UniProtKB/TrEMBL annotation:
Keyword terms: Kinase, Nucleotide-binding, Transferase
Domain annotation Adenylate kinase active site lid: ranges: 157-192
GO MF term list: AMP kinase activity; ATP binding
Record flagged with keyword Nucleus: no
NCBIfam families assigned to the protein according to its UniProt record, in alphabetical order: adk, PRK00279.1-2, PRK00279.1-3, PRK14527.1
One Pfam family cited in the UniProt record for this chain: ADK_lid
Full protein name: Adenylate kinase active site lid domain-containing protein
InterPro entries for the chain: Adenyl_kin_sub (IPR006259), Adenylat/UMP-CMP_kin (IPR000850), Adenylat_kinase_CS (IPR033690), Adenylate_kinase_lid-dom (IPR007862)
CDD domains: ADK
Length: 245
């Protein structure tokens, strides 16, 4: 057991994680699900709910990249500039990262892919990676939302860096201002949630990521959700889709 790694995690977060693993066993579905949608569509918000309920691993490529940036490595320094401009990291780097993550024991019960794939080459490579172990993407959930809605959401977002949990100062405030509900650690605003960067992220989404919607539609595994409603209403639909055989 890597006690060094655990020493960096608060007791409250560890206990919460143990409880989640114990409780979610009842509904382990062993599916691989892609969450699609613009920046701010609510992928992270609903990943957290799916994670608590269905025993899958949560692979947020954005969170993994931000962790690398925080490590201060040379590679992290390169990533930081690209992410702060709202551009995408190279496909090859991202595909290697996701391949390593999918092989981890935590993903044996299924996986939520949040922020990956983000280009058609990534989607094709993901299919190849999963095929090697007899797996596939079972569902792609497209969280549909208009641009003007996400600009407001991202401008007010607060994030707990270690877990990726997100809040919104108006729509989903933490119990105590500026503090994560679970760990009591401080919340921060993401560097790429500044207005100019948000605009670029939305342009990049339209040109490079949105074609993936049709990629999964053609495979007959696309499920569309109106993601402009309150979180609990969206969650009801997402839950029903995930439970669909
Ligand atoms: P990433 O971290 O994936 O960012 P993103 O896709 O831009 O999406 P966000 O995390 O901003 O939004 P979300 O949909 O998760 O929304 P959330 O639930 O937080 O990627 C960041 C960067 O990393 C990229 O720009 C790129 O540089 C790089 N990268 C990552 N993956 C890559 C890849 N595969 N290839 C290449 N590069 C990659 O919600 C947002 C806010 O709204 C929150 O405050 C939340 O509380 C609130 N909210 C959510 N739902 C609702 C609702 N229904 N009503 C009201 N408020 C709501
Ligand atoms: Mg996110």
């Amino acid at each position: 057991m890597d006690t060094q790694a655990y020493s960096k995690i608060s007791n409250a977060a560890l206990i919460q994680e143990l409880y989640r693993r114990y409780r979610c066993q009842e509904e382990a579905l062993r599916k691989r699900i892609v969450l699609l949608g613009m920046p701010g569509a609510g992928k992270g918000t609903h990943s957290a709910k799916m994670l608590a309920r269905f025993c899958m691993c949560h692979l947020s490529t954005g969170d993994l990249l931000r962790e690398e940036v925080r490590s201060g490595s040379e590679f992290g320094k390169k990533l930081k500039g690209i992410m702060e401009r709202g551009e995408l990291i190279e496909d090859e780097v991202m595909c290697n990262l996701i391949k390593q993550q999918l092989a981890k024991p935590a993903c044996a019960n299924g996986a939520i892919l949040d922020g990956f794939p983000r280009t058609i080459p990534q989607a094709e490579k993901l299919d190849q990676i999963l095929k090697q172990s007899g797996q596939q993407i079972d569902q792609a959930i497209f969280m549909n939302v208009r641009e003007q809605v996400v600009v407001d959401r991202l401008g007010g977002r607060w994030t707990h860096l270690n877990s990726g949990r997100t809040y919104h100062y108006k729509f989903n405030p933490p119990k105590v201002h500026g503090v994560d509900d679970i760990t009591g650690e401080p919340l921060v605003q993401r560097e790429d949630d500044k207005e100019a960067t948000i605009r670029n992220r939305l342009n990049v989404y339209q040109s490079k990521t949105s074609p993936i919607i049709d990629y999964y539609r053609k495979k007959g595994i696309l499920f569309e959700v109106n993601a402009e409603r309150p979180v609990n209403d969206i969650w009801k639909d997402v839950k029903t889709i995930v439970k669909t055989k």
